[in-house]
Amino acid sequence: DAGVIQSPRHEVTEMGQEVTLRCKPISGHDYLFWYRQTMMRGLELLIYFNNNVPIDDSGMPEDRFSAKMPNASFSTLKIQPSEPRDSAVYFCASSLSLGTTSTEAFFGQGTRLTVV
Amino acid sequence: AQSVTQLDSQVPVFEEAPVELRCNYSSSVSVYLFWYVQYPNQGLQLLLKYLSGSTLVKGINGFEAEFNKSQTSFHLRKPSVHISDTAEYFCAVIRMDSSYKLIFGSGTRLLVRP
Fold it and tell me: Which residues of B touch A56 (CB under 8 A)?
């Protein structure tokens, strides 16, 4: 397996524009996580899914952020409209079910978002 | 609620010296514990994990960690570091209940000097 695949790797956009980040989890994994990493806040859990269903979105900063998982092999994180303070590295991670010896989150390479 | 505390934001050490990176957690239920490493401009990579069993866990690159339930700690150690160990290290926990929130500490930057 190629691991967790995120696209794009880098995104530069103007304030007010819509941004969509994409993630393909490892095949067979039933948990998917979206994190945001900044110098000030570190790694923040934004939202996570189990079997394509959002379980906890309490980390989503505001209504401008939304995430979907239409099927087991694809998820998106959308920011509309984007603001300069959204500039960060966004990571996607996937994992098998809790309680197995394989419990471990695998991370993608991240998307570096710059909003100017 | 659960939380993870990494008290040291940066740890400078000389090459071939031993190192310990501290991690403490708080949780009302039992937890799984992890250490991840992040090299510049890369994603996070698992170093080691504690799920159950022996409290001394060995991971990749010569790292090990010890789970101490009474002190709610999971400190990471390496007896002799290399320049290539320079990276950011994150401690993380998962609650052993119906939720599955993987929560990270603030990270510790290990800076290995020649």
Answer: 99, 101
